TrEMBL record:
One of its GO terms (molecular function) is oxidoreductase activity. The keyword Oxidoreductase applies. This is Putative dehydrogenase. Residues 149-285 form the GFO/IDH/MocA-like oxidoreductase domain. It comes from the Bacteria. Keywords: Oxidoreductase.
Length: 386
């Protein structure tokens, strides 16, 4: 029994994130299963309307997926009272003006991260949506992934005792583009085009750490541009002006020390492209995006430092895998479902524009720290991003 239809304007579906993660794997997957199941057993069907700059490209996507409505006229879509949610997957630099038009039209908002290029703009947006009383959410996909959900479950169970420290390792080798093409777009390596690993990844670390351990209170970051010259999509050599690695220490929540390495200049000797080791008084865990393993106090080995003897102990064997104990949907879809259920119930979504602003703030303060060579505070508590 379908009780309602939620109309969603999808702006930027020709892009990498907009097409695969948001349109195909989230909105269409929900639509094709008969809509979103609501807690009372009814379903809300989705009415997607594609918006973009190229009519031809929108038409191709619409035909491929049996979508009835698409337009290059954003204002016309915003004027349609049957469309409730405006979702934005544009290039970050094009986002703020588009969000402002949707705010003026009184739509609910859902946005890729970051909501804006500067903290001042992101904080303004957060204030504007709050003042206007608009339902709002920002993509925080990483915490919907199986590995981080397992970590949250461990934290909630009290497994760790008191959490002492976290060591996070994110990165992989991104080819320079000379003898093999680079696997990321060249603008990522130009600061003047909004590139840099801090701007790209620190908004993620902000909500991941806040969700798991509490607000980030201070940051010390050392950034580097390890590879000063790269080759772009046209085969032209260009100067890499943005940071391609960042080595950071965050003070988080109640005295948790987080060391986080983020780098596009490391070769992977890990099980996953990002891994976090959490050490607590009663136990430790190592989690990636999908898997996790734990070691409790009771089974912790007792190594003795002796450089004269090779150590035959297999430390890896002392860890136990954390089972799934459930099914994990695609992270983007899981958040879409939660956002839409919140919308249908008229309650706020927990990852809002204020949370997005705190992510941008962390990136800005990290760059400030790197430039000044000192630790920088973020202000008090979760309101710091406002
Ligand atoms: N959550 C994540 O893990 C994650 C990962 C990658 C990117 N992102 C974010 O998603 C957003 C999109 O990134 P992407 O990699 O899909 O980029 P993309 O370049 O593949 O897509 C950008 C989209 O914006 C449109 N666009 C570009 N310039 C425009 C303009 N001037 N006016 C209107 N539309 C314009 C393009 O047509 C395209 O539809 C970015 O804000 C990025 O930060 C998030």
């Amino acid at each position: 029994m379908t009780t309602q239809t939620i109309g969603i304007i999808l702006n930027g579906v020709t892009g990498r994130m907009g097409y695969r993660q948001h349109l195909v794997r989230s909105i269409l997957a929900i639509r094709d299963e008969g809509g979103l199941r609501l807690p009372d057993g009814s379903r809300a069907q989705l009415r997607p309307v594609l918006v973009g700059r190229s009519k031809d490209r929108l038409e191709q996507i619409a035909h491929r997926h049996g979508i009835a409505e698409y337009t290059t006229d954003l204002d016309a879509a915003l004027a349609d009272d049957g469309l409730h949610v405006y979702a934005d997957f544009l290039l970050t630099s094009a986002r703020v003006p588009a969000l402002r038009r949707a705010i003026a039209a009184g739509k609910a908002l859902y946005s890729e991260k970051p909501t804006a290029e500067t903290h001042a703009e992101a904080a303004d947006l957060a204030r504007e949506v709050e003042r206007a009383g608009l339902h709002n959410g920002v993509v925080h996909d990483k915490i919907y992934l199986p590995g981080l959900r397992k970590l949250k479950r461990l934290l909630d169970s009290g497994f760790f005792g008191r959490v002492l420290s976290v060591r996070g390792e994110f990165g992989y080798w991104v080819f320079e583009g000379d003898w093999q093409p680079a696997q990321r777009p060249s603008w990522n390596y130009r600061r003047e085009d909004g590139g840099g690993i801090v701007v790209d990844m620190f908004p993620h670390w902000s909500y991941v750490l806040e969700h798991l351990f509490g607000p980030v209170r201070t940051v010390y970051a050392h950034t580097a541009t390890h590879i000063p010259k790269r080759v772009d999509e046209q085969g032209r050599t260009y100067a890499a002006t943005a940071d391609d690695a960042a080595y950071a220490i965050f003070e988080v929540g109640r005295d948790v020390v987080v060391q986080m390495n983020s780098s596009w200049c490391v070769r992977v000797d890990r099980d996953e492209l990002v891994e976090f080791q959490v050490d607590g008084t009663r136990g430790s865990a190592v989690v990636g995006l999908f898997n996790g393993r734990v070691q409790s106090r009771e089974v912790t080995p007792r190594p003795v430092w002796n450089p004269d003897l090779a150590d035959a102990h297999d430390y890896r064997a002392d860890w136990a895998a954390v089972p799934d104990n459930g099914e994990f949907a695609n992270g983007f879809r899981a958040q879409w479902e939660e956002y839409l259920r919140d919308f249908a119930a008229g309650r706020p979504h927990r990852f809002d524009f204020a949370s997005a602003a705190r992510g941008v703030l962390l990136a800005e303060r990290a760059l400030e720290s790197a430039a000044a060579g000192r630790r920088v505070g973020l202000g008090e508590g979760p309101e710091a991003g406002r």
